[in-house]
Every structure is written in structure tokens, then in C-alpha cells.
Amino acid sequence: MTDVITFTGRTPIKQLLAAVAPLTELTVKGWARTVRRGKDVAFIALNDGSCCATLQIVLDPKLPNYEEVSRLGTGACVAVTGALVASPAAGQQWELQATLVAILGTTDEDYPLQKKRHSFEFMREIAHLRPRANAFGAVFRIRSALAFAVHQFFREHGFMYVQTPIITASDCEGAGEMFRVTTLDAEQPPRVAGQIDYRRDFFAERTGLTVSGQLEGELFATAFSDIYTFGPTFRAENSNTSRHAAEFWMIEPEMAFADLAADCQLAEAFLRYLVTFALNECSEDLAFCNERIETGLLAKLEALAQATFETISYTEAVKLLEKADRPFEFPVVWGRDLQSEHERYLTEEVFNGPLFVTDYPQEIKAFYMRRNDDDRTVAAMDLLVPRVGELIGGSQREERLDVLDERMRTCGIDPAPLNWYRDIRRWGGCPHAGFGLGFERLLMYVTGMENIRDVIPFPRTPGNARF
Amino acid sequence: MTDVITFTGRTPIKQLLAAVAPLTELTVKGWARTVRRGKDVAFIALNDGSCCATLQIVLDPKLPNYEEVSRLGTGACVAVTGALVASPAAGQQWELQATLVAILGTTDEDYPLQKKRHSFEFMREIAHLRPRANAFGAVFRIRSALAFAVHQFFREHGFMYVQTPIITASDCEGAGEMFRVTTLDAEQPPRVAGQIDYRRDFFAERTGLTVSGQLEGELFATAFSDIYTFGPTFRAENSNTSRHAAEFWMIEPEMAFADLAADCQLAEAFLRYLVTFALNECSEDLAFCNERIETGLLAKLEALAQATFETISYTEAVKLLEKADRPFEFPVVWGRDLQSEHERYLTEEVFNGPLFVTDYPQEIKAFYMRRNDDDRTVAAMDLLVPRVGELIGGSQREERLDVLDERMRTCGIDPAPLNWYRDIRRWGGCPHAGFGLGFERLLMYVTGMENIRDVIPFPRTPGNARF
To answer: Which one of B56, B71, B105 terminates a domain?
Structure first.
């Protein structure tokens, strides 16, 4: 990491901890994790969010405001000027001998983040303060780094970023539960013939929050060849699980000229890149997660970065599950969706590594997936990984207009509102494929966090839109 | 640019046009911009979206499907294998001698994008196809590049990216018109005591779409020091202007320990970085915009990249405007907001360059801006640039809880729902500052596009949520 020049006259603690030689005069600013007062000296463990670790500040009683500073509480905010010197203490290379301490903000006994460890449940109640805790500091730094890695991977591979709309009048899956977006007066909506008159709503029709940018992404792929989206998506499902949030970020690449095999190659390269990026760029935070959140996390990630990605068809998967020498809660029947227990058995016990399952029965997949020559299955894929199950889902898209139209009819989807989607099959159409990766699911996998609420800055779930 | 390896067996045309030597066998895939048939030869001008320019494909009548290929229409999609050879034609270095052409998708006479130039208004009606047109290809490639530049700038400067919530129960400005987000049955909402019972809505309270991520960004800044957001924001304003959209993307950095001067320094460094990035990385597309969209665009951007950013106070600005030797439509009065005509006079005629105007009257600014010692003005800044006016707006935030509370009372804002915002002033508070840059306004400035609808893939405006 090259040195960062801040705009606020401070040196990031991360840089100081990586110093190769003492430094005479510099300023750090941050928040006290602990303040310890000895007989002839006091110490502040200072964190500024640039890394997980703290810098030890040594306070000499000769400091003019020593009394005040040495009695500060956890969470207090200070600016400290001094010299970086070798630390005699074990476990740390450097410490800062303070010559000047400015108190910027104090705390009191009501401050909820005391030194002891708090449960993740408690921390959700104080989501505005939890970024100051080690675990959430680590998770949100990893989130930031991986968001950058997403953009960097695609830029290096020539993909164009497209920001697809959030407010939409269409529903990609044809079935997802959507949030409605409106400016109509809820108490007295305008009516015509007894019905609410959506022509008088802001967009002159019923609109909701997008569940996917894929359909718009396909439009851009037929102009720029390789594109991706990365933006918020929404599900109004009233399910309070540890894996579902009402608002989450999704990454959806789409490649013109791609078949399902190319789609799998992209997914493999992408996931390997992200995990390798995290291992290289977030090593301190991942070490923390490995110690405090998921034992074996680093070994799991290192294994994935090196792993061979296997591929089997859904039909083969069903055969393997039927032969399994263990019972499942849900029966295994060709034509039904695989359950999480099935997916985890395949990826954890049979293959012990990442696994693509491809070519699912048409009936359990979305209308836009390309029908295979067997007329029973579609060119879909799910990427399963140990401990999580499905991480990525994608497909080749149906580019044949007659087949697409027939499929829309069967699924009861009105083609008229999707004429724009049909148009790219009429004019200059081509085979194309893509997938979706839920960013939060990736973060749960990479950090070891088991609840999606703990990898989102301010999670939105049924009954909760706080902060 | 290093060579890109695609997942679809094709070489991007951008790379071929930059080739340093002939190549024997390679494959390109893309869309015909034109097909010209001569007596003994035919040509396709092929575009794949990797750049603005087309690659000339030379078709020999000996090709088995020559008859069919040479009669393709504009917009048809083909995969071509052949050899890259020096072109005898003027204005292009390379052409591709085709040995194999696969037709992937044809077009017909109904295809709306014929060779002639279409108006931007017409193109908005076919927003699903307009990325295939040169101007929109250029604009959306610049959009993608600048989105990457935003992330790269902040990563290089040690800022953490935070994805703030889209659905929110609070309203940052206290006044902005918000879209409502709901899952209640619009026809028969549940009621209690005659009123709609929002406790039974999805989030158990009234929620809307965010107008800014700033307040949540401030929370993260008091843990990570330097942070930024980059995400969609919304305004339910029923104004059909060329500069307003209902949905747009905003970039909002926030720095702990920053005063207004540091905030201005960040804004200057950021804007200079983005413009320089565009000049370096998007030179072909900017040359197109310079020729077809805004005459003098390149000179304008080059001037900005080198410019001195001046700073004057609002009070000084008012004096300059009062002395102006020209009339204004809106009167200049201390205490009123500057109008666009005033801003453009200052930045274009007085300073002829980028200009920060700082320290606005408290009454015309938001409650969270830090009050100056004069008790009349707040530590706010607007960055004005020639041809656009306001591009960036920011402020130092009020970190003193008593002053903030007093200001909220004056503005009629109930403090209780914002206790989380108040908390970071109670515990470990510090001076901090930030700003907002509307991404689309930046893109209008950089591309020369005059209507915000033409820099957004699928714009949302009153009466329009198509695609």
C-alpha cells in the first residue's frame, strides 16, 4: 500500500503500524478503544478505522491536560501529535509518544460500546455505533474492498458497468413480491370507475422496486457485448430468516455471444478473483474473522482460491442424491427444486469443493432461460459452495423469439409490456448468458458471518427500517 | 490497455484497432453499423461496443454465404473469423479479411436505428436500442469509466465505501419530496381509528426512498474516518426539466476531522481526478462528444484539469453580483439563494473558472450545517463551474449537540426519530464535513449532453418508468 495523504492533517494508523523506521512528528486522530492509567504513565489504544489494530498512545504526566486525557472513557475522540518510536511492549512494534493531545469528543457511562464483547443481536440495536466494534469494522472494510474488487475484475476483463433502474414498471421474475413505489395520497387515492387511477401516480402507471437488473442488462449486452450491473435490489418477502433481507446488492454480468459453458467460466474466474483479492488485500481483517467469527475461514477461502470447479447436470445430481446413504428431510424427485440440504450434501460431501449444477427442469426455472434440445431442461446453472450452498445462479437466455413467446404464454406472462425485451430478439439478436451473485451472500461466505443483517450497514428486514 | 481475454472466443475491436502488427486468425463478434455491397466485394462496418469506431470487414464473393451476408441490414449481428491486415482505405489502419461469417441475428425494415442521424428525443423513445448508437455508446462508456474512477480515487485516498440504505424511514433534508414505499393493499389499506395503520406495513412504519445517504455516511465517518457513498437517490418532484430526474446516482464523501477548507480541498482534488481520468481513458469517446455534442468540450475539460479553484464567501459573491454591469432576472439580495444566472455569471464572467462559494446564510441551508461564529452564516460550500453552475454542494456538519438541537427546533424537525444521528455528537463526536456530487450532473458536464435523460441508461421522470 502506498502512503495515503489525507485531507485532514492526520496519518492513518494502518500506515504507522507498517512503518519501517521511527518518525519524529506526526498526528493521528481517532477513537479510544481503551484508556489505561498507571502510576506514572497512561495509555490510549487508538483506532481510526483504517485497520483493525490500535496504535498505543503513551501519555506522559507532564502533558498539560494529562489529568483530563488519562481519564477519558472508551469511545472518546482525540487528535494526538507525537513521535512514533519502537515499543518496549510485547506484541506491537510501534507506539506513539504523545506531545500534544486535543480532546475532540468525550463519552459518558451511557455509551453502549464498552470494552466487553457484545452479542451480534445487541449490536444490531445500535447499528449506528457498531462500525466502531472490531468485528463490524472488519466486515465493513471487507465489504468496501470487495466492492472495489468487483469493479476492478470487470474493468480488467473489458466489461462495461451499467446502472440499471431501481424504480420499474416490470417484474423480471414474473412472480417476485415487489415493493410498491407511489406518490398517490394513500388516504384518498384518485379513483376512476371505483379503481385507483394509477395514471395519476408519479409515473402514470403502477411501479415498484426492482428485483433484478438482468432484463435491462441484456439490452446493454446487445450493444456493448460484455456488461455488468452492481446495484440494490429488493424483495418484499415477509420472511425473517438469517439469509434474507428486503434490500440487498446484486452483481449481474451479462455476455453477448456466451453459452452456458462460458457463463460458468466467467463465474469461476470471478469468484476466484474476489476470494484471492480478499486474501491479499484484507489479510488482517480476515485473520480477525478467522479467529472470532468462523474457525477455519482462512483455510476455506484458500481452498476455494485453488479449487477445481466441478460441473454436473441436474439429472446427474438427482441420481447422486438418490444414491446417498443418508436420509433427507425433503424427498429427491426429478422435476423439483434442490433444497439447501441437497445442495450442501453435493458440494460438501460428494465433491468437497465448488460445484456447478446445470440444465435444470424447465418448469422450475424462469421464462427467460434457454430451452435445451431435450425440450425438458433449460441451460441454467447454480454454483454451489461448501457451507453456503447456492452462491451464484445464472443461465443462457432464450434468444429465439418464437421459443421465448411460447414460454411466456405457458408462464402466463403478458408479452406486450415486455416488447422492448422481445425487440432485442427481433433485431440483431444473439446467444447470450449471465448470472447473479448476491453481494451479501458473498460477504457472508468471505467473512463467516451467519446472519445477513451483520454484513449490511443498515439492514432492512420485516418490521425494521431503522437508521 | 493490456489485452483482454474474453470468455466468448472473440477479440474486442478496440484491441484490434490498436494492433501493432497483422494477425493471422482471430474472431470478432458484433453488430453491423453499415453493410455496403460492391461489384466484387462487400464491406461490413462492425461495432462491438468496446469502442466508438468500427472495424471494416472485407467480404470476398467466394465466401459460401456471401449472398446472404452481403445483403444483411444495419444492426445485424455476426461472428467473423479472418485475418487482420493493413487496410488500403484512407482513415483506417486495419481491416479484417473474412474467411468465415456466421449470421447470429438479422434485422428488417422495421429496425428503428437506420444509418441516418436521429434526434435525441426520438432516441429516448427507443432507450432499449439507443446504446447501439454512437453518441449513447460514447456516453455510457464514459459513464462506466467515471464510475470506476470514483471508486479508484477514494480507494487511493484511503476512503471506505459504504452502501447506505435505499429504503428509509427518515428524510435527510427534512423537506424533500419522497416516494413512498409500501406493501399495503392500496385499495383496502388496514386502518386504525380511521387512519391508515402503517404499523401493519412491511417495515411497521411509513417508509420512502432515500434522498441522500449523508446522515448514515456521517455515522460511518465516526468509525472509519474517511468514507464515501455512491448509490441511487430519489426525488419525487414533479418537475419536467432537462436537469432533474426522479432517480439518479449520488456520490457523498464524508471526512471525520475535516473543516470546510479540507472539504473544498477534497472536492477540488476529486473533480480534477475525474476529469483527468476521462481525458486519459476516454479520449476517443470524448473526441466524439467534442465533435458531435458540445463544441469546445475538450478545451473546457483540459482547462478544468489545470485550473486554479478560487474561493469567495457568499457575502462577497453578493457584493460582486450587486456590482455587475448587467441585469438579472432574479434580484440579488443577501439572504436569498443564488440563482443559476447568478452562479453562471460568477463562474463564467467574473472568475472564468471553477469557484467555491462558501458561508451561506443559515436560513437558506439545511439544519445539519455547522453554524459560523457570526451566528448568521453556516460553513457550507457550493462548487460552481462554467456552463453548468453548481456541480458540488457540501458543508461542515454541526458537531455541537446543543447547537444542532436548537437548529432542529427552529427548523421544526422532531429530534426523537433522529436520536441515532444525535448520538454520534454525544459519544466521541468530532468536527466533520462532506459533500454531494450528482453523478449525472458530472456526466452532463463531461460529455456535454444537455438533458439528464441522455446520460442515464433508462431515465425515470414524471410519467415515465419505461423499460
So the answer is: B105
Question: Side chain identity at A229, as an amino acid letter?
Answer: T
Q: How many CB pairs under 8 A join A and B?
A: 376
Contacts of B256 in chain A (CB under 8 A): 8, 29
How far does A378 lie from chain B, in Å, by closest CA? 20
Q: Is residue B169 assigned to a domain?
A: yes
Question: DSSP secondary-structure letter at B357?
Answer: E
Same domain, yes or no: B62 and B101 = yes
The set of residues, in sequence order, having a beta carbon less than 8 Å from that of B200 and lying 6+ positions away, is: B184, B190
Which of A161, A423, A458 has the CB atom closest to B148's CB atom? A161
Same domain, B59 and B156: no
Q: Does A332 touch chain B (CB under 8 A)?
A: no
The Cα of B1 is separated from the nearest Cα of chain A by a number of Å equal to 9
For residue B242 the three cell numbers come to 432537462
Q: State whether B82 and B135 are in the same domain.
A: no
CATH number of the domain residue A448 falls in: 3.30.930.10
Q: Does A464 touch chain B (CB under 8 A)?
A: yes
Confirm whether B125 is domain-assigned: no
Contact A224 B460 (CB under 8 A): no
Residues B93 and B149 in one domain: no
Same domain, B91 and B236: no
ipTM: 0.97
Residues of B with Cβ-Cβ distance to A108 under 8 angstroms: 426-427
Interior angle at CA B451, CA B171 and CA B254, nearest 5: 40
Q: Determine the angle formed by the axes of helices A134-156 and A439-447, rounding to 10 degrees.
A: 120
C-alpha cell at position B426: 454525544
Distance CA B29, CA B104 (A): 9
**For B73-119, how does the pLDDT look when each residue is reduced to its tens digit (9 = 90+)?**
999 999 999 999 999 988 899 999 999 999 999 999 999 998 778 89
Q: Which of A56, A72, A105 is the last residue of a domain?
A: A105
**Residues B90, B137 within the same domain:** no
Distance from CA of A440 to the nearest CA of B (A): 11
User: B169: closest CA among B205, B131, B128?
Assistant: B205
Interface of A with B in 155-214 (CB under 8 A): 155-158, 160-170, 177, 179-184, 186-187, 189, 195-196, 202-205, 207, 209
Chain A neighbors of B134, CB-CB under 8 A: none
Instruction: Report chain A residues whose CB lies below 8 A from the CB of B148.
Output: 151-152, 155, 161
**Interchain contact, A224 vs B429, CB within 8 Å:** no
What is the distance in angstroms between the CA of the first residue and the CA of the last residue of chain B?
Answer: 34
Q: Where are the alpha helices (DSSP H) in B282-392?
A: 283-292, 297-306, 314-322, 340-344
Q: Is residue A72 part of a domain?
A: yes
The DSSP element (H or E) to which B229 belongs, if any, is strand B226-234
Count of domains forming chain A: 2
| CATH classification at residue B80 | 2.40.50.140
The answer to whether residue A335 is domain-embedded is yes
A138 and A31 inside one domain? no
Within 8 A of A14 by CB-CB distance, chain B residues are 158
Which residues in chain B touch residue A143, judged by CB atoms under 8 angstroms apart? Answer: 161, 163
Q: Hey, which bits of A87-182 come out as E strands? A: 94-105, 160-161, 167-168, 180-182
Task: Please give chain A's pLDDT, 467 residues, in tens.
Answer: 468 889 999 999 999 999 999 999 999 999 999 999 999 999 999 999 999 999 999 999 999 999 999 999 999 999 999 999 999 988 899 999 999 999 999 999 999 998 778 899 999 999 999 999 999 999 999 999 999 999 999 999 999 999 999 999 986 544 468 999 999 999 999 999 999 999 999 999 999 999 999 999 999 999 999 999 999 999 999 988 999 999 999 999 999 999 999 999 999 999 999 999 999 999 999 999 999 999 999 999 999 999 999 999 999 999 999 999 999 999 999 999 999 999 999 999 999 999 999 999 999 999 999 999 999 999 999 999 988 899 999 999 999 999 999 999 999 999 999 999 999 999 999 999 999 999 999 999 999 999 999 999 999 999 999 99
Structural domain that includes position A266: 130-175+211-454
User: What CA–CA distance (Å, rounded) separates B247 from B230?
Assistant: 13
Residues B20 and B157 in one domain: no
CB-nearest to A457 from B108, B220, B467 is B220
Q: Which residues in chain B have their CB less than 8 angstroms from residue A240's CB?
A: none
